[in-house]
Design goal:
The structure is a single chain. The longest helix is centred in the N-terminal third of the chain and has 40 residues. This protein is α+β, with helices and mostly antiparallel strands and 648 residues long. The N and C termini lie far apart (158 Å). It has two domains: 179 residues, Penicillin-binding protein 2a (Domain 2) (Alpha-Beta Complex), CATH 3.90.1310; 354 residues, Beta-lactamase. Helix 4 runs antiparallel to helix 6 and helix 14 packs antiparallel against helix 20. 43% of the residues are buried. The protein has 22 helices and 25 strands. Strands 2, 3, 4, 5, 10, 20 and 21 form a seven-stranded mixed β-sheet that branches. A five-stranded antiparallel β-sheet has the order 12-11-25-24-23, with helices on both faces.
């Protein structure tokens, strides 16, 4: 019998159904599982916040950033701040953090708008375009003051939900100058990078600068910023020798002179001859340290607009340039005390020796005139009278007797032809004759201050050595340096460089210069109640014959132990007849009247000093001329000008 056939289709259908059912169960299980996960995610998002985002942010390092140091202060000798740094704030945001939640965007946007006026549209645009940044500096909101920052921080404190996020205030320091224009050419200013430009800011930049700190941080699981801070090291402070009150008086007087008379240029140095400290120094005009690129002190707006960038740069450098230390000129008769001092020290002359002045000297066929040429000379005079009446003839005789070798040595010892070493940038060296180049004519003209060039600071330092007992001090504008805590870092207590002449020689010169103010060409420099000594100078500028002169005066007080030296230069006074030192002597008198009491030097009842040299025993011609456009005899008791002629 055959086997009965089995119908497999029935079993296949049943198996398929079972398999499909199992797959469906698995699928449903997977879907339930996925659904559960989704529900969990939604739950976590709503019930516990953005834990996932927190974990992600917690793994990301917060952007580290620098903490700016505070640049050191510059003060005057009395502690008045001439340059300082104030704390300001730059606004930055963290787009990544702010965009984490809509609530953050909404709250942060509202706070920024309320305090800083930043619109919601502006913020959203930044969040979209800078979505990957954790630090974005708001360029239009730099240099904020503390009040604005405090106002924003108060809003953050009041935000109970803590939704104001990702706003950063970067602290930095901004340089400012409380006295604006005072001592601008001594102080200098800073670039936007806090680097010193000109003046003390430049010369002592490494001392004033500090070291930046750094802030490192990260977000914890609560989106709280955990920071590690390395504090900055602030710069050292500079204590200058400048007296802000004296400097202010000097600048005011210079401004008044320019308004009343005017000149091409003008400079003045007030210093302590006993140690080289500069009390005040100014060349006209000063500029605003808080706005150093403003040329309106020299030019109109129309003139400035027409200037090319190159021309503006040139004019700015002229404005910033310190004439008192950078520019060289022929000193004229203010050099004569140095010639006399050298000859006294070498025994070439003495107070009792007489010289005959016939109004000129003929040197190698060249006639070199004295101021007294038209009057037939000063006739018989001694060395004191030669200074009192500014006699070129006697100076030429003294120079020839001293000889070029010794003359060149003394010129060098007094600091001419070389930088003084003053602690300011841009110092010039002037130009003097070497021994090989100094022949008889050069020696003759150099003896009375023509042919060689000097800077104001060179002449002031040399003049100080002549009258202080013979000690040459390095002139300086910084007294000491202290750190941020006030501890002394360094000081310049002893700036003595060398001994140039003896005390005996210096004493004689002081007396001669006192006579020069009391009875000679420098009489307008006298100050009631004070014993003033000094020497005038009138040097014709090259090319000669155009009537352009540089007039000057170097003076000091007290006579026995000088405490103050004033050196004034007026370059081409704005008058028809420039060759009169009265403009410089009168200006010095006005300055001394005001500043001497401030420096602790008061009037004395004993203003009469014994005339040791009997300088007035010999009659000396005097024209008693008043310069055209100048002042009246009645008011200023004008003595003879010491105009020199006979340039080689």
């Amino acid at each position: 019998m055959g086997r009965k056939a089995v119908d497999t289709r029935k079993f296949n259908k049943v198996g398929t159904r079972k398999l499909f059912g199992r797959i469906l169960i698995v699928f449903l299980f997977v879907m339930v599982f996925i659904g559960g996960l989704l529900i969990r995610v939604v739950y976590l998002g709503k019930a516990k916040g953005t834990e996932a985002e927190k974990k992600v942010l917690a793994q990301q390092s917060y952007r580290s950033n620098e903490i700016k140091y505070k640049r050191g202060d510059i003060t005057d000798r009395n502690g008045n701040k001439l340059a300082a740094s104030r704390k300001v704030y730059d606004l930055a945001i963290d787009p990544v953090l702010i965009a984490t939640q809509d609530e953050y965007i909404e709250a942060t946007s509202a706070a920024l708008k309320k305090v800083f006026g930043i619109s919601e549209k502006t913020l959203k645009k930044i969040l979209e375009e800078q979505s990957e940044l954790q630090y974005y500096l708001m360029q239009d909101f730099k240099g904020l003051d503390k009040d604005q920052v405090t106002e924003f921080e108060e809003l953050v404190k009041k935000d109970k939900k803590k939704n104001i996020k990702g706003v950063i205030f970067e602290e930095r320091y901004e340089r400012y100058y409380p006295y604006s224009t005072v001592a601008s050419k001594i102080i200098g200013f800073c670039s936007s990078e806090d680097i010193g430009i000109w003046g003390i800011e430049n010369q002592y930049n490494s001392q004033l600068s500090g070291t930046n700190g750094r802030r490192y941080g990260y977000f914890n699981s609560e989106l709280e910023l955990v920071e590690t801070i390395k504090n900055p090291l602030n710069g050292n402070n500079i204590v200058t020798t400048i007296d802000a009150n004296v400097q202010g008086i000097l600048e005011r007087q210079m401004n008044e002179f320019q308004k009343k008379i005017g000149s091409l240029n003008m400079g003045c140095i007030i210093m302590n001859p006993q140690n080289g400290e500069i009390y005040a120094m100014s060349s006209y005009p000063e500029y605003d340290l808080n706005n150093p690129r403003d040329l309106s002190v020299l030019y109109s707006e129309e003139e400035i607009e027409k200037m090319s960038d190159k021309k503006k740069s040139e004019e700015l450098n002229k404005l910033w340039r310190n004439f008192c230390i950078s520019d060289a000129f022929e000193p004229g008769s203010t050099f004569k005390p140095i010639t006399v001092a050298a000859c006294l020290d070498e025994g070439v002359t003495n107070p009792n020796k007489l010289y005959y002045c016939d109004g000129f000297q003929k040197v190698n066929g060249v006639q070199i005139k004295c101021v007294s040429y038209a009057a037939g000379g000063h006739q018989m005079i001694n060395i004191c009278q030669s200074l009192m009446e500014s006699c070129n003839d006697v100076m030429m005789q003294l120079g020839a007797k001293l000889g070029r070798t010794k003359f060149v040595e003394y010129v060098s010892d007094f600091g001419f032809g070389q930088k003084t070493g003053i602690d300011l940038p841009g110092e010039g060296a002037g130009g003097v004759f070497s021994k090989d180049r100094m022949r008889s004519v050069e020696l003759a003209t150099s003896s009375f201050g023509q042919g060689q060039t000097v800077t104001m600071i060179q002449l002031a330092a040399a003049f100080s050595a002549v009258i202080n007992g013979g000690n040459y001090y390095e002139p300086h504008v910084v007294k000491e340096i202290t750190n941020a805590s006030g501890a002394l870092v360094s000081s310049k207590e002893n700036a003595l460089v060398r001994k140039v002449i003896t005390e005996g020689t210096s004493e004689k010169i002081r007396d001669y210069l006192y006579q020069t103010v009391e009875k000679g060409t420098a009489n307008p420099a006298s100050v009631p109640g004070y014993q003033i000594g000094g020497k005038t100078g009138t040097a014709e500028k090259h090319p000669t014959g155009r009537g352009n002169y540089l007039v000057s005066f170097a003076g000091f007080t007290p006579i026995d132990k000088p405490e103050v030296v004033v050196y004034v230069i007026i370059d081409e006074p704005n008058v028809d007849d420039q060759a009169h030192s009265i403009y410089a002597t009168q200006f010095s008198s006005q300055i001394m009247k005001e500043v001497l009491p401030l420096l602790g030097i008061y009037q004395s009842d004993d203003t009469k000093k014994k005339d040791k040299t009997k300088a007035t025993d010999i009659k000396i011609p005097s024209t008693k001329e008043v310069p055209k456009g100048g002042f009246s005899n009645k008011e200023y008791n004008v003595a003879e000008s010491d105009s020199e002629e006979g340039q080689d």
